[in-house]
Amino acid sequence: MNFKWVEHGSVTSVPGFRASGVTAGFKRSGAPDFAMIFSDAPANFAGAFTSCSFAAAPVQICRKRVLNSPFVRCAVINSGNANACTGKSGLADAERTCERAAVRLGIAADEVLVSSTGRIGVPMPMDTIANGIDLAVAALSPNGGETAALAIMTTDTQPKSVALTLEIGGKVVTLGAMTKGAGMINPEMKVPHATMLCYLTTDVAADNALLSEMMGRVAAGSFNRITVDGDMSTNDTFVIMANGRSGVRIEAGSPEAAAFEAAMLEVARRLAREMVMDGEGATKFVTVKISHAATEADARLCAEAVANSLLCKTAWFGGDPNWGRVVAALGYSGAKFDPDKADIFYDSIPVVKNGGDAGTTEAKLVGVVKQREFTVSVDLHDGDAEYWVWTCDVSYEYVKINADYHT
Amino acid sequence: MNFKWVEHGSVTSVPGFRASGVTAGFKRSGAPDFAMIFSDAPANFAGAFTSCSFAAAPVQICRKRVLNSPFVRCAVINSGNANACTGKSGLADAERTCERAAVRLGIAADEVLVSSTGRIGVPMPMDTIANGIDLAVAALSPNGGETAALAIMTTDTQPKSVALTLEIGGKVVTLGAMTKGAGMINPEMKVPHATMLCYLTTDVAADNALLSEMMGRVAAGSFNRITVDGDMSTNDTFVIMANGRSGVRIEAGSPEAAAFEAAMLEVARRLAREMVMDGEGATKFVTVKISHAATEADARLCAEAVANSLLCKTAWFGGDPNWGRVVAALGYSGAKFDPDKADIFYDSIPVVKNGGDAGTTEAKLVGVVKQREFTVSVDLHDGDAEYWVWTCDVSYEYVKINADYHT
What we know:
The structure is a homodimer.
Chain A: E1 3-5, E2 17-22, E3 34-49, H1 57-68, E4 72-81, H2 87-105, E5 112-119, H3 126-139, H4 145-151, E6 160-168, E7 171-180, E8 197-202, H5 208-220, E9 237-242, H6 255-277, E10 285-293, H7 296-308, H8 310-317, H9 323-332, E11 343-346, E12 349-353, E13 356-357, H10 362-369, E14 373-379, E15 385-392, H11 396-403
Parallel strand pairs in A: 4-5, 8-9, 10-14
Antiparallel strand pairs in A: 1-6, 2-3, 3-4, 3-9, 6-7, 7-8, 10-15, 11-12, 11-14, 12-13
Helix pairs in contact in A: 1-2, 2-3, 5-6, 7-9
């Protein structure tokens, strides 16, 4: 594909977008905890959100925007408080957040998207929000993307911000994005549906329906294929804002739309990968790939069972090739396949042949699983369907982070 | 119920059963690793086994016994090697194990049950098996039950062995049992279906069909409701042997059968509870109880999502009341319910009311979750169905045990 990564890319690599990241006061550490993205022009948009039945107040607001707002201008994002399970007052708080931002920016409240991440069930400190909005508006800058990415971090060890450019119809268009992990990661986002947050900006012009359609497929091929801990969040949010500034309009079914969607997938996969690499306490990045399954549903059941198996994840942490745990997870996955035909590989090294030991020496297998990154491939010899998932290990550090998490 | 726990109870508390536990040589540590139970008379029996599609060779043998053998006399159990994913040669090894035991005991091979637990995918060292059989036959004793329970341990920190007596029709009958955990525990056993192993002995007389029927219900009310790590084993086995020696015959549908089944459930629950208490690295025993769900299936989805949530389990380890993680797990469980009606209690302390913070102080909640044992109750206010699960926390020790497990 004809694209180029932008050095120090961010949501503000896209012409017409400004952003900021400030310390509003949510985090005890004093680290940046409030971000804003602002589009100089009305931006078409689409969103995909958590399928958790306890959807946080800001998610409820965003869903409403997707249904009712033809375009948006702004997104405000705080870390340190999820505004989830906060009832009607939480919803009112999220509305008031949009209203204040709107007033300060001279736009309408229904042109504002809002996202939150952090502790669940704690009322939103509205003074801190007000402080954040005022500071963020004042700090908006065409170079603010990287700071914004810093401000949305929770347990992430590093900010996740990228941008790429590609040519469509002789013109250059840009896609910028930022995201955060790094726990409660097992998104299953449905369109008008991680606590992953991902904001994409672009200067193509596209209508909301097309953006939504592309977003659904992109989420299915990226964020919905990652897991850190198997826990889905109340706040997962994936948003794209398109301001049309490049003069390139993309239409459903066109080669331009296909090219743009491919670029969007590239951005989303890169960020999804970074999210797993930076998963809480993670020391290993593991691709679980199932091939030749009878159906994609069977392949997915197998991939997700292995990717979420606590025994597999702790074995990986220990650099233990223990393939019995992989086999056990496949066996309880609920997928239909013939165990006697299953082959397993670690990278390209045969581990299991026809459901039994392939005879590779332990030392060779240890060589693979000691790496920072490797692939567990399972060939079911049962059909043509396939599926893959990105996952990480479970370490002492994971337990430490989560046994003692108070923002 | 009219029963009495037997002090130092075991499978040999039941008249007519002998047992032994010996060091065959599977474990590097030199700890006992081979157990035998022998019934002086032909015993009716039933078994429930893992629903993992990679069922270990000994499980396959036991299933065949359930189908074809009218009665059994003996069970041989080794720890340190699972004989799973060992293909045709593994199956032949399991057959040869039965054959050797049969020859030494002067019985038929199809009167021998076999179970294995330990590392998956390693060929069974048949010399060690032969050694185990010879030693175990020589050591068979009417007082051998407790030693047998020692010999089936893997990562368990203590043996799990009980017996009770109850009166049925004026006569005393006895139920003895032994089991082992302590990882790869999330059994879902189907009748003629953990690496939990549980062997029950009794001196009632009952036909295999009735024993099987009772076992199905007992497993559903005990072992199938526990989880340590959410990983189901290739080797889970639950067996009952009934030698009839008490002279009490129980018939399907009789009050005697009901009394016996209740006692069986009591034994199974006590052992299931001990298994979770002794779960790998566990420092907390947590009952997750869902009430007033629309259907039992919804209640079960909710209970299992919370019980298997890595974020809930690490929070419990940390003594962190973090109810947001409970709520998130309920929300992604797939169960149908109205989040705005859900109430949550830690023991009897209100935590969540109508889907939001119940206003209890953090200190009070910490008081509950700091305990060795507590209950997370969720009232969905949505119907009359309920379900409960026993689970434990995930600790540094859990990671340690499983990052570095070689028997």
